[in-house]
Specification:
With 215 residues, the protein is an alpha/beta fold.
Length: 215
């Protein structure tokens, strides 16, 4: 039994296929309720608990949090669903790189998979697939820049000449509640373009119906 995880949180990680050694290696742990406002930077009514996902190599303290809300608090006051994951208010987007990936970042002989969500990247690496994760389909983009530009974490990866597979969640081509296309197709295609401009050979993987969602 992992001592630093509440049973609810451990069950959630196991549901994503993560082994205990992977969870321990990547320092995923529950957060004490008294520490939550300080770590996320604000108070969130109806929040029951969270666990933290630190980003390797752990040297700058960046982390994201999985939220668990009390019944009846699944939506904000405006009716929109609350996000399942957040990071500290005011922090920038980062690329999640599982620890086993660091020796492979310069190895262009290895296909690189880019998925959506930290747990899916960890599960992929467990299965032997070289994988990193963006935290949302637009979160590869450096903020405050007029033109599309990759966040700095991509600089750690040798992309020129490398085969890259983008694996977005299977809802990226869905319509919104008004029946019009979401802007997620643009997010995927523009990320692919930025990677190709870095010299990567990019393919977008279409997951089957009922495939992975961003959990």
């Amino acid at each position: 039994m992992i001592q630093n995880l509440a049973p609810l949180h451990l069950a959630d990680l196991r549901k994503s296929g993560l082994k205990e050694e992977t969870i321990l290696e990547h320092r995923i742990e529950s957060v004490r309720p008294c520490d939550i406002p300080r770590l996320i930077g604000f108070n969130l009514p109806g929040l029951e608990s969270i666990y933290r996902i630190p980003f390797p190599p752990f040297n700058d303290g960046f982390e994201r949090f999985k939220l668990f809300c009390h019944e009846g608090y699944e939506c904000n006051d405006d009716g929109k669903k609350r996000p399942k994951y957040i990071q500290k208010r005011g922090s920038s987007n980062r690329l999640y790189i599982p620890l086993p990936m660091f020796p492979l970042l310069a190895d262009t002989e290895k296909i690189l998979f880019i998925t959506e969500g930290e747990k899916k990247a960890l599960a992929a690496v467990q299965a032997g697939l070289p994988c990193v994760a963006i935290t949302g389909l637009w979160n590869w983009k450096r903020p405050g820049v007029g033109l599309d530009e990759l966040i700095e974490d991509f600089d750690k990866i040798t992309l020129r000449g490398r085969n890259v597979r983008l694996v977005p969640d299977n809802d990226w081509r869905d319509l919104d509640r008004n029946g019009t296309p979401k802007n997620l197709e643009k997010a995927v295609s523009r990320l692919a373009r930025c990677l190709m401009l870095r010299g990567a050979k990019v393919e977008i993987v279409i997951l089957p119906e009922g495939g992975s969602n961003h959990e």
